[in-house]
Amino acid sequence: MQKHISKNMADALMAWFGHHRRTMPWRGSDDPYHIWVSEMMLQQTQVATVENYYPKWIARFPDVFSLAAADLEDVLKIWEGLGYYTRARNFHKGAKYIAEHAKDRKSPFPDNYEEWLKVPGVGPYTAAAVSSIAFGYPAAVVDGNVKRVMARLFCLDEDIATQKYHKMLFEIMNRGFHGHHPGWVNQAWMELGSLQCTPRPDCSRCPLNGDCCAYKAGKTQRYPVKAEKKKIPVRCGAAFVVLHKNRMLMVRRHAEGFLGGLWEFPGYTLKSDRPDPLAFAEFIREHRLVNVRPLGRSVRHTYSHFHQRIDLFSAELEVPWESNAWAEARRIGLDELGSVPCSRLTIKIAGILDEKYPHGSPEREENN
Ligand code: SF4
Fold first, then answer.
1. Bridge partners, residue 342, by sequence
2. Can you give the pLDDT at residue 79?
């Protein structure tokens, strides 16, 4: 079958989109910053979740210059709970880049796909989305929904996770705008994947069923082709609630890398699914923790590449906390935890402490 989006298909898609498209706070805007914000948030995240975060973000950072001038900690705080924190850090870096290069252009923003790809943290998806929606630049947006639709429309047998598949779709779709605004066409394909060509589609209602290879062959469940996923490992570890004068010790992760810049309870995660008494003893010794007691609770969280299981302990410090081996540390009350950016796992731990100590942290007076 020819892998070609005909004009009739593009027209039918756009007619369907005109009737079915959802209202979203950012939809219809051609402000590149607003579109950039929404696209950064929408990756691997449900529209309903982004609808909650987007207005808060725009209120706090109304334009790219306010984002560029903000502290990373403020940026992470507003992003908190969306996950994939590298994206927030990269967005911040990208905003600084745009602000620095703003004087070189008429608009602060590049108006084409290739220039957007030069912005730190901007990959093919975001470059295509922002340049097509804000500037009408003909660059196809290839997301998970679009990959599923195209695999079925053309019975594509390539594994959808490969670069080869991505490149093939980019080429097919870039030839399929047929005079429609590229930004709207991209949104229409994504919307068709979200609302109509779902994992279990009702093809009788699809505007493209007359052209769909998988539907005509009765093979919609065969597509898209996905290589078997590797099982993701479990990693276990420990976190310590270190109280001092009614306040808990929180430490900050290194700015670069996984969950970089976020605050958490002191602790560690192993690359193993079993507790390691030696690693436990080593952590306690290195950080001069004493009176370590199990809290009898553990917390679980799943990231894209591993499951985490953290056992909770209470502990005290043998030395003043300022002199300890933490890179950056703070004492804060349980009720103040909302003022610093934390990972979801840390928020789950705080929830357990909240249940355990409903009137705030227990009154304790240690000597350090
Ligand atoms: S006919 Fe069915 S499988 Fe084909 S594009 Fe439409 S919804 Fe998807």
1. 263
2. 93
Catalytic residue among 39, 191, 264, 316: 39
Tell me how far the alpha carbon of residue 308 is from its chain's centroid: 18
Q: In the prediction, which pLDDT does 331 show?
A: 86
Q: How far is CA 338 from CA 270, 302, 350, in A?
A: 27, 22, 10
Domains, the chain, in order of start with CATH, read 7-222 (1.10.340.30), 234-356 (3.90.79.10)
Q: Which two tokens stand for residue 211?
A: 């052209």
State yes or no: is 228 an active-site residue. Answer: no
151 in contact with ligand 1, CB cutoff 6 A: no
Cβ–ligand 1 distance for 203 under 6 Å, the answer: yes
Q: Which of the residues in the chain have pLDDT under 70?
A: 1-2, 321-325, 356-368
Residues in the chain: 368
Expressed in angstroms and rounded, the spacing between residue 203 Cα and the centre of ligand 1 is 5
The whole-number pLDDT of residue 366 equals 36
3-class DSSP state for residue 297? strand
Q: Which of 251, 74, 170 is nearest to 95 (CA)?
A: 74
| Residue in the block written with tokens 């420990």 | 238
Cis peptide bond N-terminal to 224, omega within 30? yes
Strand ranges, E, within the chain: 234-244, 247-252, 263-264, 267-269, 289-302, 307-317, 329-332
Q: What is the predicted pLDDT for the residue at 357?
A: 62
CA 199–ligand 1 middle distance (angstroms): 10
Nearest CA to ligand 1 atom 7: 197
Which pLDDT value is given to residue 105? 72
Residue nearest ligand 1's atom 8 by CA: 197
Q: pTM of the predicted model, to two decimals? A: 0.75
pLDDT at position 362? 45
